[in-house]
């Protein structure tokens, strides 16, 4: 789905060029769930915006959904295959109601009114907003706004959704709802790139890529990251309670594959 090789990106600041991405190589297969993490300013947002053509790499190679993003025409075409849900839920609605917001993205596809209505009804049901179809978007909660943004992606029959720290502005219930929705879509075949700085969300991901200063420091399975890589301590990450207990078990000789990452894992161990 995504194939980046030695990807670079820099911005011009007067006479200087400031490097943002420094030789990024990452492959994401169709149907994968990958979490991307790193401190603010590490290059996460710049990287994901190259994946759907919002930013143009300075060097290296990048293909997305089989399209070479060095071609200007492909940067527009790739947006149907790869959609981005932004951090701020208030910054991504255009219509005055959920119905209008979803319809906006469908109007340029040449669908008949009957097909468009059916698609809107389908995606509203998928994200649990059928009862809010004609509500003023200003009355929606932050979590409902994020689900509406997901519905707009689904309406375009996207193959991959990039969630850019979408839970950072939500309360615990809203965070859990959007994470469960993303997981359900993943189980149905959607490729998911989940960008987060929350340790509990990383712990639930089968694969994690860690960025720092424009480079990828780690890309692999989650247990190895938390228990063997040394990166969480080196980067000053707080340990989740389940991982702290797992570290005690690791010191007692427990094998890596049985160490807990989540509260559910910990319940099974206990």
TrEMBL record:
Keyword annotations of the record: ATP-binding, Cell membrane, Membrane, Nucleotide-binding, Translocase, Transport
Domain ABC transporter: residue ranges: 2-238
CDD domains in alphabetical order: ABC_cobalt_CbiO_domain1 (cd03225)
Record's subcellular location: Cell membrane
Topological type in the membrane: Peripheral membrane protein
Pfam families (UniProt xref): ABC_tran (PF00005)
Regions that span the bilayer: none
Domain of life: Bacteria
InterPro entries to which the protein is assigned, alphabetical: AAA+_ATPase, ABC_transporter-like_ATP-bd, ABC_transporter-like_CS, ABC_transpr_CbiO/EcfA_su, ECF_ABC_transporter_ATP-bd, P-loop_NTPase
PANTHER family: HEAVY METAL TRANSPORTER (PTHR43553), PEPTIDE EXPORT ATP-BINDING PROTEIN YYDI-RELATED (PTHR43553:SF2)
Family stated for the protein in its record: Belongs to the ABC transporter superfamily.
Name of the protein in its database record: ABC transporter domain-containing protein
Organism: Paenibacillus helianthi
């Amino acid at each position: 789905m995504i194939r980046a090789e030695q990807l670079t990106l820099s911005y011009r600041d007067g006479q200087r060029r400031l490097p943002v991405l420094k030789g990024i190589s990452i492959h994401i297969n169709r149907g994968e769930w990958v979490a991307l993490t790193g401190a603010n300013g590490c290059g996460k947002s710049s990287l994901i915006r190259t994946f759907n053509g919002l930013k143009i790499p300075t060097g290296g190679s990048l293909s997305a959904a089989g399209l070479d993003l060095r071609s200007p025409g492909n940067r527009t075409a790739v947006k149907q295959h790869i959609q981005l849900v932004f951090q701020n839920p208030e910054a991504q609605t255009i219509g005055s109601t959920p119905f209008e917001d979803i319809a906006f993205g469908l109007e340029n596809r040449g669908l008949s009114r009957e097909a468009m209505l059916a698609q809107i009804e389908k995606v509203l049901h998928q994200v649990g907003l059928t009862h809010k179809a004609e509500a003023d978007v200003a009355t929606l909660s932050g979590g409902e706004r994020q689900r509406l943004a997901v519905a707009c992606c689904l309406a375009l029959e996207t193959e991959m959704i990039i969630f850019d720290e979408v839970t950072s502005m939500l309360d615990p219930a809203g965070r859990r709802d959007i994470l469960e929705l993303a997981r359900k879509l993943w189980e149905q075949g959607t490729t998911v790139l989940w960008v987060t700085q929350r340790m509990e969300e990383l712990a639930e991901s089968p694969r994690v890529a860690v960025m720092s200063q424009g480079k990828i420091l780690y890309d692999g399975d989650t247990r190895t990251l938390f228990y063997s890589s040394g990166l969480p301590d080196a980067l000053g990450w707080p340990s989740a309670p389940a991982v702290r207990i797992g570290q005690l078990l690791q010191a007692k000789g427990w094998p890596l594959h049985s160490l807990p990452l989540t509260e559910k894992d910990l319940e099974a161990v206990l």
